[in-house]
Amino acid sequence: MLSLLLLTFLCVSYSDQRSTPEDDSYVAAVVEYQVQSNVETNLRNYINLIQDAAFQNADIVVFPEMTLTRGNSVTVPIYGLLKDNPIPALAPELYDEILVSISAAARQNEIYVVINVQEILNCTIPQAEGENCPEQKRYLFNTNVVFNRSGAVIDRYRKINLFGEFTRTPALTPDLGVFETDFGVTFGHYICFDLMFQVPAIQVVEKMNITDVVFSTMWFSEMPYLTAVQIQQAYAHSMNVNFLAAGANNPRVGSAGSGIYSGKAGALVSIMPGQPTTRLLVATVPKVPGEVTGNIVGPIYDSPSVQDNLTLITDPSLPSHQTRLLRNDVEDFVLVDRDVLCHFRVRMSGREGNTAPFYRAFIQDGLHVYAKRNVGDVGCVIVACKTEDPKSCVYKFDDSEGQTSIEELEIKMTSYGKHYNSTLKCNDIKYRYRASAFSGVRSFSGLATGGARVCAIFACTGDTIDTCGKRFDSYSRNTTVVFEQLEITAAVPPPIRNSDLQASDSKYYPISMTTSIMPLKNEQFAFDEVSLLLVNVYSMRLRAATDELYAFGVWGRRFETDGQDPSPPREHDIEDLTTTPAPSTTPSPGSSNSVHKFSAVLLIISIFLLLKQ
Ligand SMILES: *[C@@H]1O[C@H](CO)[C@@H](O)[C@H](O)[C@H]1NC(C)=O
Ligand SMILES: *[C@@H]1O[C@H](CO)[C@@H](O)[C@H](O)[C@H]1NC(C)=O
Ligand SMILES: *[C@@H]1O[C@H](CO)[C@@H](O)[C@H](O)[C@H]1NC(C)=O
Ligand SMILES: *[C@@H]1O[C@H](CO)[C@@H](O)[C@H](O)[C@H]1NC(C)=O
Ligand SMILES: *[C@@H]1O[C@H](CO)[C@@H](O)[C@H](O)[C@H]1NC(C)=O
Ligand SMILES: *[C@@H]1O[C@H](CO)[C@@H](O)[C@H](O)[C@H]1NC(C)=O
């Protein structure tokens, strides 16, 4: 009797944990899942993770893209068999083992589950009833499947924007993924590269009036604007939605990053692991995005040196940007590219101050006359100098001249033997920074193109543009600079709502990235939008000095030019910052033809008015 009572009590209290339509919040879980190929192992892990999520009172758990089936395919007959038998766990003979097992786990744990699978649709057989079959053949799709607490399949979404994936077909019609829940939240959902496009990423929110988005992904992080957590957080911010992002984890190929974000409040929890990881992230999500109450975990950082093992690709359009090297100074200038005007205010300084003595790194590879003999001489050394001029080295200074203490000094030389690398630059171990303006078309890894409008600064490993958006192979401290002030204002054509799609034709995101390959927290910057008559002005401002930045600015997508050829590269300055005087603070020459000059003038006036306010 007692045990029966206890059991009843436990059952009641367990189901009481579920969120209801009246609650102000619900509990979400996302899984960062380490990629492995064995389906049986994955299925077992998934079931355990579903259970873990339920034990932590999650109402919904989201899994990443293609981390369950990979080679295998699943049929998801949502217009056929599933209409009469919506719960695969109750009709196991009709369905694939995967649907049956996940259905059973969702049912047993009374939790909504979103998985991603490779879906097969065999249009040569009558079972394809209710399906759109343009050709009598076999189709493969990249598909999200949603289960409710009873284990019923309640939604199926096919990826619209494939990232390569040449064996698969994009959704035959651009159907949005949307599902309702018993806790009063309606979710939109889509997959990975879809995030970059008007349909579905903008449309599902703006047309369907949705405040909560589920995202399954296997993202290939790209510097400087599109690393995983960076763009997830920026999307949640700009769209003002709750964003449940589950990422496949395979750092060796560049996939990592998951989080739960709430509008302008930023990450309730987020991770960007540089090493193989499976991890369940759980957070209480306010139903009104951004209205966070109570404690949150926030971003969980991996140390920057762990990120050495995370492969990062580089935005191939950087050479097409209008750029300018930044110096350790106070600078205030404008860059213009077609219909984008960027105003920069920067106060940047080196880490260790600019006072004497100066140190210079030398690399030497040559002949030396020593005791009347030619002697081969190879070296990588750091020496003290009197001034910035290399001729003032080596200098023997006395104690009154400098207080520099060298706390850490490590010199690695790769030299003769099997290899000699003539591009090795011992004296070049600090990041340079460039300011950039861009309005044009970029390529996404050669697999698609899309319009972009950007005002940003980013780190480079050298003086030339091809070194930008890159990271040194191994992290070392004090290679970035200190930004005491950083304010970037972008004046751009105002977004226009496409009335057919019921979605904006462009979108602007606050982007930032630090040495841990994570964005700044939302309280560390201010992002504002002002609509003027003919322009929208977005400003992105640092709230406090920061010394770990790789990128910062306003990154926008313009959807109208998607599919066009990428913008060609252009010339970039490679001035020597130690000798050239500061350039004037006018738009760079060659950045605009006469047509664009007119709009540039217009934009400058608007900016001027704005800043005067
Ligand atoms: C599709 O169905 C046909 C007819 O049953 C069958 O012959 C074919 O092997 C199926 N194709 C696949 C890929 O399952
Ligand atoms: C799950 O979905 C099925 C089919 O739509 C429905 O009959 C059932 O009531 C739902 N269960 C819950 C708990 O919402
Ligand atoms: C959109 O949703 C908000 C609340 O989330 C509501 O106030 C508004 O009326 C809705 N608009 C439409 C067009 O459904
Ligand atoms: C990075 O990868 C190397 C080689 O695969 C491994 O030895 C090292 O432990 C990894 N470092 C971290 C921090 O995971
Ligand atoms: C030489 O050094 C550069 C810069 O570190 C590196 O990218 C390149 O791979 C090296 N080449 C060889 C042959 O080691
Ligand atoms: C590196 O920076 C830290 C703080 O950012 C400082 O404490 C340390 O002294 C610096 N080290 C060197 C070698 O400049």
TrEMBL record:
This is (African queen) hypothetical protein. One of its GO terms (molecular function) is hydrolase activity. Belongs to the carbon-nitrogen hydrolase superfamily. BTD/VNN family. Residues 578-594 have a biased composition (Low complexity). It comes from Danaus chrysippus (African queen). Residues 561-594 are annotated as: Disordered. Residues 26-287 form the CN hydrolase domain. The keyword Mitochondrion does not apply. Residues 1-17 form the signal peptide. The lineage of its organism: Eukaryota, Metazoa, Ecdysozoa, Arthropoda, Hexapoda. Keywords: Hydrolase, Signal. Pfam families: CN_hydrolase, Vanin_C. Gene3D superfamilies: Carbon-nitrogen hydrolase (3.60.110.10).
